[in-house]
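HOLO CASE FILE
Compound: iron/sulfur cluster
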Amino acid sequence: MSDIRIVIDGKEVFVPKGSTILDGAKKLGITIPTLCHLDLHDTKMVNQTASCRVCVVEVEGRGNLAPSCATPALDGMVVRTNTMRVLETRKTVTELILSDHPKDCLTCSQSGECELQDLAEMIGIRDINITGNEMSTYKKDYSTSIIRDMDKCIMCRRCETMCNNVQEVGALSGINRGFNAVVSPAFELPLTETVCTHCGQCVAVCPVGALSENDHTWKVVEALANPEKTVIVQVAPAVRVALGEEFGHAPGTIITGKMVTALKQIGFDQVFDTDFAADLTIMEEGTELLGRLGRFLAGEKDVPLPILTSCCPAWVNFVESQFPDLIDIPSSAKSPQQMFGAVAKSYYADILKIDRKDLVVVSVMPCLAKKYEADRVEFSVDGNPDVDLVISTRELAHLIEQVNIDIDELEDSEFDKPLGVSTGAGVIFGSTGGVIEAALRTAYEVHVKKPLPKIDFEQLRGFEGVRAAEVDFDGLKLNIGIAHGLGNAKALLTEIRNGNPRNFHAIEVMACPGGCIGGGGQPYHHGDSSIIKKRMDAIYQIDQDMPIRKSHENEAVMELYDKYLGEPMSHKAHDLLHTHYSQKDKA
Ligand code: SF4
Ligand code: SF4
Ligand code: SF4
Ligand code: FES
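Model generated. Tokens follow.
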């Protein structure tokens, strides 16, 4: 594509055909404020609704102002971003948005992260001269994972684009007109009664406090203050490479040791690692994969292949509601979060000689779907959940601030034993491609009975939404598929439904862009996908630096099998570590 030349504020710039004026301005380092626009590069997330008009500019020869985010740059175009007319319009537009917006910034969950707040600050709005009715017709919609407060919705429609175009779930759409216009599930149903997967990606892109996580931090504080409870915490792999961002560190900064110290200072009795449970997941899922493959190679006809990974609860929700005919092909292995909870409330409670009801299991997750998952009835025993409380990476950061811990001042600590012992295979669960790579590291050595010639399966890594690779198991060729983002997963599942023409044997799916590193509970990326890539690099760096990088070499996991479970896929392992799926009929 040949470049085209435009001039912005007297400066010449060349941009590829198809670029917008905003792209040109960014290339020149000229800041044009935006609000509704969002371009998460390398994903399908481009919101070009041009609904807010904050980004208007003057284009020579054009009568009206142009929204720079949605106006194509044309050869020879001359643009001004800072005329009086532009500045006045921007100010008026922002005042109009603020005029019917609730003024509860002091208590809003998004305060400090709100793009509308930042815009008002940038434009220098001190008084709102336009008065109007504040919208108050919408009740808050609470689910275990997400709260919708539609009085705060500014109709940017980013959530709708994310849910419909990227995730292809279709839970949200614009309804009503004028002041009552809002993005909502059909018939204004609560999210829990819809096909929503609770992936939280709409929350990740909402610029204001209209969508937020259901915050469980205070319940954690209450549990910690209860002397009758033993409170343990598990931390998911993706948290350690993102938490630092909340404290001003560069994306991808690894702060595992300080995070563990902070959790100990907060008062958790033991600080454990979900990576331990990820290694355990591999033992179960890898064995299941080899079992199904063995039957297939022996000529059995009805073997459910390809096996699909099952560690992402949003993905599981998606299959249950949108592909019920394929419900028998995901692995029956529980997610690492739930495996951890099940083991903690049985094996570990036995070690402590306490009743499971006196043990509180808290998870720190990059994920909002994990809040929903922990609440599923099948993950509880006599009403006592395997995982009691789930907080996000953002919530942990707030908790650390609340209790006055200066994380930068802390020394490093190690996770506690035994449920904090892990391998490099466990940590790469946090990234797209990581789960299947971890599974193959173990499955190869179990099947071939020789050490892997090379631990890294680089052909499985990357940021492409759908990837395919062939892996050689000493002559046995396995076709592996990988998808991140539910829209990409849908494409692969549709292929499977149509006869699996590429002969996939195993497919990994994660609902979020980049996998859990881009989860709905992570620090806000504000549309900068390079942040997610830096977290990915950090995940692989941790793996690289681990002394043990294969799940079947995790001594604590082996001890769990020796002392408690027997062997992978044993009767006891099946009872504790596997689950079943059922069709969900939702709107
Ligand atoms: S809920 Fe948030 S993301 Fe969705 S339209 Fe409203 S303001 Fe935009
Ligand atoms: S949580 Fe995910 S599936 Fe649910 S509405 Fe938001 S983007 Fe859609
Ligand atoms: S990809 Fe990870 S963060 Fe996203 S919904 Fe799935 S488990 Fe949660
Ligand atoms: S940011 Fe361009 S119209 Fe909203």
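CASE NOTES: The longest helix spans residues 274-297. The chain is about 35% helix and 15% strand.
CLOSED: yes
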